[in-house]
Design goal:
Elements: H1 4-8, E1 30-37, H2 49-54, H3 56-68, E2 71-78, H4 83-90, E3 96-100, H5 101-111, E4 119-128, E5 134-138, E6 154-157, H6 162-173, E7 183-186, H7 189-198, E8 203-207, H8 210-216, E9 221-225, E10 233-240, H9 241-246, H10 248-267, H11 269-280, H12 284-291, E11 298-299, H13 305-320, H14 329-332, H15 336-342, H16 346-350, E12 362-363, E13 368-369, E14 377-380, E15 388-390, H17 393-402, E16 409-413, E17 420-422, E18 427-430, E19 440-443, H18 446-454, E20 460-462, H19 464-470
Parallel strand pairs: 1-2, 1-3, 6-7, 6-8
Antiparallel strand pairs: 3-10, 4-10, 4-11, 5-8, 5-9, 12-13, 14-15, 14-16, 16-17, 18-19, 18-20
Helix pairs in contact: 3-10, 4-5, 5-13, 10-11, 10-15, 11-12
Protein name: Nitrate ABC transporter, periplasmic protein
InterPro entries: SsuA/THI5
Keywords: Signal
C-alpha cells in the first residue's frame, strides 16, 4: 500500500499532466486521439483509469478501423483536477476529457466564448444523488467537532471544484459566512492533504477519493458527510464540439468503450477496484468504498434529469465566486452521441437512480437476504478474493466477531444519508428499541450519530469494538 506521501510524489508538470503519462503509438498514418482524465478521481474511472487499463477504447477503435480502413492511436493525459483539462481543450490539444460537475460547467462556459472552442457534455461517469462524493475532513485529534467550530480557522479546498461548493453550501447551512467566518485556502487536493497533516489548515473539503483515503490511512476523520447536503454531485465526459462534428464515429467509439468499462465494473467490482488501485497507487479498499456495490458512486452513463437539474442549480454559485459568467446548458448538454450507441433501454435507464451494482446474496450469519440498499453491508475477509454480503450493519458486526481474523475491509451505509463508509471508522449507536438484527446503527460523523441519539430514547454511542462484542 502506498502512503499519502508516495501518492503525492506522483508529481505533475507545469501543464498539470502526470509525468508518468503514456504516449500513443505514433505509427505512420495513425489518427491521434487525445484523452484527458484524472486517474485518482475514481468517480471517472469508466472514462479514464479503468477504461485505459482494460484497453476498451483501443479495442473499439480497432473495430472502427476495420470498417473504415483507418488507424488510430490514443494518448492518455493524466491530471489532478479538471481545470488543466479544460485549458488544453480550449487550446485544441485534448479531444475528450472527464471531470466533475463544477469543472464541467466551467468547461462549457469557457468553450462557448468563441465558436472555435465550443464543447459538448455527452455522458455521466458516476454520481451520488445526495452529494456523498464530496466530504470535509479534519485531523484525527482535532478539537473541531462541528462546522461551527471552523470559525476563525483556515480550510483547504480547490476553488471552483465541487468540494468547494460543498464547503460553501454546508457552511451557510450551519449559519457560517464563508467570506468572513473562516479563511479558504485554494490548494490542489494533495497539497491540502499535506497541509492538514502538518496542521497548517484545520479542515480539508475535497472530492473523491481524498476524504476516504485520508480516513482509511488514519490521517483524518470525517467532519461532514456530503450526503447531508442533499445536493446531487456527478462526473462526466466532455468533448470538443469541432472534434465531435468531424470525428463523431470516434466519439461514439469512446462512449461504447465507456459502456464496456461500466459493465465490467458492475460485473467484476472487486477486480475493477484492484485494477484501479494498481494503476493509481490508491489502496484497493478505498477504491472499493466508492466504486463497489452500493458504493458512494453510482456508475451509469445516462444523463438523468435530476443531474441536469443539479447542473442548473450549480450555476449561481459559480457565478457568485467569479469563475462563471454564464452558460447555455441547452446547447452544452448533448446525449445524442450516447443514445446512438446505448440501445433501446436508454430512456428507461435514464429515468432510474437505482444503483445497477447492488449488494445482493444471502447473509450467512443472519440467514436472510441482503437486498435493502439502506442496510445492506459488505465484508471483505482477510486473504480472500471475494466479499460477503451482510443484510444489516448489525449482521456485519456479527460476521466480524465470528471471523477467524480481522477482515481486510468492512463497509456499511450511514443510517441517515446512506453514504457507504468503513465500518471501523464509523460512529456506532446502540438502539435497544430497534429490531434485534438492526440494533446497531452506523453513522459517518458524530453530528449525525448525536442527532439520532437525541431523537431515540435509550440510544447511546458505543465504540466499534464495543459494537462488535455486543452484537
Amino acid at each position: 500500500m502506498r502512503t499519502l506521501a508516495a501518492l503525492a510524489a506522483l508529481t505533475v508538470t507545469a501543464a498539470g499532466c502526470s509525468v508518468a503519462d503514456a504516449t500513443a503509438d505514433t505509427a505512420a498514418g495513425a489518427e491521434q486521439v487525445v484523452v484527458g482524465y484524472q486517474s485518482k478521481t475514481i468517480n471517472t474511472v469508466t472514462a479514464g483509469t479503468l477504461l485505459r487499463a482494460q484497453g476498451y477504447f483501443e479495442k473499439r477503435l480497432a473495430e472502427l478501423g476495420a470498417k473504415n480502413g483507418k488507424k488510430y492511436a490514443v494518448t492518455w493525459q493524466d491530471y489532478d483536477t479538471g481545470a488543466p483539462i479544460t485549458a488544453q481543450m480550449m487550446a485544441g490539444k485534448i479531444d475528450i476529457g472527464s471531470m466533475g460537475d463544477y469543472p464541467l460547467l466551467i468547461n462549457g462556459a469557457r468553450g462557448q466564448q468563441t465558436a472555435q472552442t465550443h464543447t459538448k457534455f455527452v455522458s455521466i461517469t458516476g454520481y451520488n444523488t445526495r452529494g456523498g462524493l464530496n466530504s470535509i475532513v479534519v485531523a484525527p485529534d482535532s478539537k473541531v467537532r462541528t462546522l461551527a467550530d471552523l470559525r476563525g480557522a483556515t480550510v483547504s479546498t480547490s476553488v471552483g471544484s465541487a468540494g468547494h461548493g460543498l464547503l460553501v453550501q454546508a457552511a451557510r447551512k450551519a449559519g457560517l459566512d464563508p467570506t468572513k467566518d473562516f479563511k479558504t485556502e485554494n490548494q490542489q487536493p494533495q497539497v491540502g492533504a499535506t497541509a492538514l497533516r502538518s496542521g497548517a489548515v484545520a479542515a480539508l473539503s475535497q472530492f473523491v477519493a481524498w476524504p476516504g483515503l485520508l480516513v482509511h490511512q488514519g490521517q483524518a476523520r470525517l467532519l461532514y458527510d456530503g450526503g447531508q447536503l442533499g445536493v446531487p454531485t456527478f462526473h462526466g465526459v466532455v468533448v470538443r464540439e469541432a472534434y465531435a462534428t468531424e470525428k463523431g464515429d470516434v466519439v461514439r467509439a469512446f462512449l461504447q468503450a465507456q459502456i464496456d468499462a461500466t459493465k465490467y465494473l458492475h460485473e467484476q467490482p472487486l477486480a475493477a477496484a484492484k485494477s484501479v488501485a494498481e494503476a493509481t497507487g490508491l489502496p484497493a479498499e478505498v477504491v472499493y468504498l466508492y466504486n463497489g456495490p452500493n458504493g458512494v458512486s453510482t456508475f451509469d452513463t445516462t444523463v438523468k434529469q435530476v443531474l441536469r437539474d443539479a447542473f442548473a442549480q450549480d450555476v449561481p454559485f459559480l457565478k457568485e465566486i467569479g469563475v462563471l459568467q454564464g452558460i447555455d446548458l441547452s446547447a452544452y448538454v448533448d446525449d445524442s452521441y450516447l443514445r446512438a450507441v446505448y440501445g433501446d433501454g436508454y430512456d428507461k435507464d435514464a429515468a432510474s437512480t437505482a444503483n445497477p451494482a447492488a449488494i445482493t446474496g444471502d447473509d450467512p450469519v443472519c440467514g436472510r437476504a441482503a437486498g435493502d440498499p439502506a442496510t445492506a453491508s459488505e465484508v471483505w475477509p482477510a486473504g480472500s478474493d471475494t466479499t460477503r454480503p451482510a443484510a444489516t450493519p448489525t449482521c456485519l458486526l456479527r460476521a466480524v466477531r465470528a471471523a477467524a481474523q480481522p477482515p481486510r475491509a468492512v463497509y456499511v451505509p450511514d443510517t441517515t444519508t446512506g453514504t457507504r463508509w468503513f465500518a471501523d471508522k464509523a460512529i456506532w449507536v446502540r438502539d435497544p428499541a430497534a429490531p434485534e438484527q438492526e440494533r446497531f446503527k452506523p453513522f459517518t460523523t458524530p453530528t449525525l450519530a448525536n442527532s439520532y441519539v437525541a431523537g431515540h430514547a435509550g440510544a447511546a454511542v458505543v465504540s466499534y469494538a464495543e459494537a462488535v462484542k455486543a452484537a
